[in-house]
Amino acid sequence: MENVQTNPNELKKQIEDNTHRWYSLSVVSGQEMLVVQNLQERIKKQGLGEDIVDFLVPMVNEATVSKGKKVIKPKKIYPGYIFIKTRMNDKLWYVIRNTPGVKLIVGAETRPIPLTDNEYQNIMAQIEKSNEKAEIFVPFQKGDVVVLKEGDFAGMKGNVKEVDAEKGMIVVNVEILGRLTPIAVAFDKVSPMS
Fold first, then answer.
1. I need a surface site. Which of 51, 76, 109, 188 has the fewest CB within 10 A?
2. DSSP assigned state of 129
3. CA–CA gap between residue 67 and residue 33 (Å, rounded)
4. Predicted confidence (pLDDT) at residue 13 exceeds the cutoff of 70
């Protein structure tokens, strides 16, 4: 009979990671904030507040134009996922897995696998990049046909000749007395032709 030596560490099934790390949870899409609230309540009841230190539902600002005005709305970049920063142990894993709305902790079946520092940095960089885009959102492009809403030329149509995103201005070519005349106006002083 073969003598098989067992490693005592392999027999220990308990999960014990005393470092706060980010973990990804798959949750019911559309209920991300509700799951975070449920988790916070359960953690408080169990007295595990020092173990879970942060929650993240990655959101970005998405800019759209509504009635000629820039509207910024938050948008989830990972629908159906939330992230928690926690020390992981058996009790926490049990509480998290059995929270309504949580499908699974992303990773291996037998033990949760934390995000690497690189994965977390990539998520944060994506949020920052998307928010920067929303800040310099330009509702008009060169060649668009717009209608002036205010001033001496209100109601006149023209083509967008130039766009200055930094200043929020466009130059519109308007026909006045048979000649094209460039007029500089702010984004909110014109509306797109529908």
1. 109
2. H
3. 30
4. no
Give the integer Cα–Cα distance in Å for 70 and 86. 38
In terms of Cβ atoms closer than 10 Å to its own Cβ (0-12, 13-18, 19+), residue 190 is: buried
Portion of the chain with pLDDT greater than 90, in percent: 34
CATH for 10-135 is 3.30.70.940
Which top CATH class is 145-192? Answer: mainly beta
pLDDT at 4: 42
Specify whether the CB–CB gap between 162 and 170 falls below 8 A. yes
pLDDT higher than 80, residue 182? yes
Q: What is the pLDDT of residue 64?
A: 65
Of 174, 141, 144, 139, residue with least CA distance to 157: 174
Dihedral sign computed on CA atoms, order 70, 124, 52, 43: positive
Give, to the nearest 10 degrees, the angle between helix 32-46 and helix 90-97: 140
Q: Across residues 11-31, what is the average pLDDT? A: 79
What CA–CA distance (Å, rounded) separates 191 from 139? 10
Q: Which two tokens stand for residue 34?
A: 């509700």
Strands 81-89 and 16-27 come out as antiparallel
- Please give the model's pTM, rounded to 2 decimal places: 0.61
Per-residue pLDDT for 16 more than 90?
Answer: no
Q: Are 100 and 38 in contact (CB under 8 A)?
A: yes
Domain residue spans of the chain = 10-135, 145-192
135's tokens:
């800040």
